[in-house]
Amino acid sequence: MRKTVIFVTGSDTGVGKTVISGLLTRFLKERGVDVGVCKPICSGGREDAEHLLRAAANKQTLDEVNPWHFAQPLSPLVAARLERKHVKPAAVLKHIEKVRARYALLVLEGAGGLLSPIGEGFDSRTLLTGLKAKPLIVVADRLGAVNQALLVLEALPKRYQAGAQFILSAVAKPDASTQTNARLLMELRPENPVHCLPRVSAKETPLLADKRAPVYRVFHRLLEKWNLA
């Protein structure tokens, strides 16, 4: 049986994918899960991969978590071409499968949005479907969130839409829509769970072990929906 991969994707860059991937990894570790992490492709720095590596606190190396990295803060496809490098999907999938084999569960973070080009002729959707991963769609909880969430969902193949879950990630300056986004999204897509994650600082990570804390309840419900709790 292939081991579980949770693929953290989203509507855009900067919507909270890395923070959520790290928190989810720490939550799983608190529960005794043998969890690995991977952000196979980064551009403009490796801070996201370093964050995941710290969250996992296992024997992985940075190059294992993030084997392809490019200097320019551009689409990974463009950044790679500027360095005269060409990333192929088969190579990326092969690397991820090697990591997956070592752990009971793998948290994998995509680069940018679901359809952002990350290599030659492929995007995060290519990896998600190639790995038969569970889609976790992260969207910033602000005006436009419902449309963005639905666009990402519709971009998934039908067989992956039913199992997808949403996280609306809290923003620094909420707007009027923040009070209605989750309710409207649940009304439009009742079959896809919607979770609202409050802003969490590094100092609050111990709350991952507190069953009364909102962040604990979000991740517990999320894993329950996938029968992973």
Could you walk me through the main structural features you see in this protein, from its secondary elements to its overall organization?
This protein is an alpha/beta fold and 229 residues long. It has one domain: P-loop containing nucleotide triphosphate hydrolases (Rossmann fold). It has 10 helices and 10 strands. The protein has a 6-stranded parallel sheet with strand order 2-5-1-8-9-10, sandwiched between helices. β9, α9 and β10 (194-197) form a beta-alpha-beta unit. α1 runs parallel beside α2 (47-56), α5 crosses α6 and α7 (145-155) runs parallel beside α9. It starts with a strand and ends with a helix. The model has no long low-confidence stretch (mean pLDDT 94).
Task: Reconstruct the topology from this structure.
Blueprint: E1 4-10, H1 17-30, E2 35-38, E3 41-43, H2 47-56, H3 62-65, E4 68-70, H4 76-82, H5 89-100, E5 105-109, E6 117-119, E7 122-123, H6 124-131, E8 134-140, H7 145-155, H8 158-161, E9 165-169, H9 181-188, E10 194-197, H10 214-225
Features:
alpha/beta; Rossmann fold; six-stranded parallel β-sheet; 229 residues; 10 helices
Question: Could you provide a short overview of the structure?
Answer:
With 229 residues, the chain is of the alpha/beta class. Helix content is 39%, strand content 19%. The chain has ten helices and ten strands.
